[in-house]
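Example 3.2
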Amino acid sequence: MEKLVLESSVVKFTIEIENKNDGKVTEVVLGVDFSDEALIAEKAKADLRKNKLAELEKEYSDLLDQEVTDDNVKVALEAWSKTLQMAFDTDFGAGTYDKIAAASGGNSFINFLLLYQRINQIVSSKIEAKLANIQRKSENRKARYLKNRKRR
């Protein structure tokens, strides 16, 4: 008899963070839950994200619609970093950004942005692969069913 395994609805992956000061590498496991409960809670997360973004926009309203210059680059990086912090903490749990920042020795905004984008690509591809696998299996079952029906 074929054994069926119900896979977890959490996509987990390990990231390695190299400290810019001493080269020490720290592993951090991140996970994204796409269970029914998590999908239902996504609206609340989206609302939280929206509210936090509105707060950041108020805090940095003088920077909006301005070109980044030598005079305001420090404030711009601070605003962008806070936006990324909000994204990491909303998506992966409060304190995630600080944990990664501490392990990295205060790495750059660019590295955090690239990490966040890469994580989103990985999660999207894993979820798309799962959905494609479900679709492929469904089509195979349908084809077998139709083939068996024709034999009768």
